[in-house]
Amino acid sequence: MIAHATLPVHSDLHIAVGASVTVFVTALLTWMVAAAVMGVPLGSSTGAPSAPGGSGGTSPTQTVYLTIQINPGNGWPQYVPANFSVAAHVPVRITISNYDNGSSGVSGEFAMVRGTVGGTETLNGTDTVSQVDPATVAHTFTIFQGGAVLLNAPVPVAAGSGAVPSEVSFVVEFNSTGIFTWNCMAPCGSGPMSTPGFMTGSISVE
Ligand SMILES: [Cu+2]
Known about the structure:
Strand order of the largest sheet: 2-1-4-9-5-6
CATH superfamily of the largest domain: Cupredoxins -  blue copper proteins
Order of helices and strands: HEEEEEEEEEEHE
Strand content: 25-35%
CATH topology of the largest domain: Immunoglobulin-like
CATH class of the largest domain: Mainly Beta
Distance between the termini: 60 Å
Radius of gyration: 22 Å
Oligomer: single chain
Number of helices: 2
Helix content: 10-25%
Number of strands: 11
Largest sheet: 6 strands, mixed
CATH architecture of the largest domain: Sandwich
Structural class: alpha+beta
Bound molecules: copper (II) ion
């Protein structure tokens, strides 16, 4: 009777301990991956490291991947994710994969690359450019500050049917913390352009 009574208890205890260890390890791994992605030094409780020590050290570049897709529900183009966080004072590489093959066209101002490191963006992993043909632009990734363009990255259309995305990649470094709103300045539709989560969103610089 006693053996029968105690065994299930022990068994349940083991399951409970195992589950909590699994949850803890999962949480730890999640934090480590997030910390690595965010460029936060492991073991440090504060982010935003300054210039890397030592000569010839590589900068702790963060990487952000954004996708422009057509929302299957309403057919609007949208950036995914639209809202994300980065650390201030470190280079951030933003890579945008665009599956939209429809051109919106932009004015010349928004066909120029502005505010990136080097004043350029890389197209499809090969061509480094400071501007693109305005007629080929599907969307832009643009940040205004005080009425001036702080950042502008034009995103060309995807070729053909859009099965293979066009890719734009650039590096930007935020010098101050805060919430930055980004917009697409290509006239891709009043709905998506005015709706957070589609062609506008926010970057939390921490
Ligand atoms: Cu757009």
